[in-house]
Design brief:
about 150 residues; alpha+beta; 5-stranded antiparallel β-sheet; OB fold (Dihydrolipoamide Acetyltransferase, E2P); about 25% strand; 2 domains
Length: about 150
């Protein structure tokens, strides 16, 4: 998937790119971390040497959107189901009712999965970073963007 955006910051071979929603967007959740921000920014490997203000084309690795959607939507749901089964079977023996045990463990597993997702975001998605594949418009620092 390719997107077009503007470089807003560059640091050690990584560029922050301000992007907008593109025509191919199917609301997969790959940009989940940008919710609530006025503009969406992603980090991309800057192999093309783009500078702040340049208009660039960014390509996301194949499978990135599928992996992101799985981790954001399916993983917490599976964790909640596993927690419900464990709570239903094991917590009933501790004096807690079966239903209450299932609810408590499901909530605990979902919370743990969200914490785990924050770690996975830092490890997995930092290695699967999008790449700048083309500098479409080189910014002249004397003129500024129009």
């Amino acid at each position: 998937m390719r997107q077009v955006g503007y470089v807003v910051a560059v640091e050690e071979g990584v560029a922050d790119i301000a992007i907008g929603e593109h025509l191919e967007c199917n609301k997969c959740g790959a940009c989940f971390a940008t919710i609530g921000k006025k503009r969406k920014e992603i980090k991309a490997a800057n192999g093309m040497g783009a500078d702040v203000g340049d208009k660039v084309e960014v390509e996301t690795p194949p499978g990135f959107a599928v992996a992101a959607a799985f981790l954001i939507y399916i993983f917490p749901m599976l964790a909640g189901c596993a927690g419900a089964v464990i709570g239903y079977r094991w917590l009933a023996a501790s004096g807690l009712g079966r239903t209450a045990g299932a609810v408590v463990m499901a909530a605990a597993f979902v919370a743990f999965s969200i914490i785990l997702l924050r770690y996975i975001d830092g490890v997995y998605f930092s290695r699967q970073m999008p790449n700048i594949v083309n500098v479409l418009l080189k910014e002249d620092p004397k003129e500024g963007r129009r």
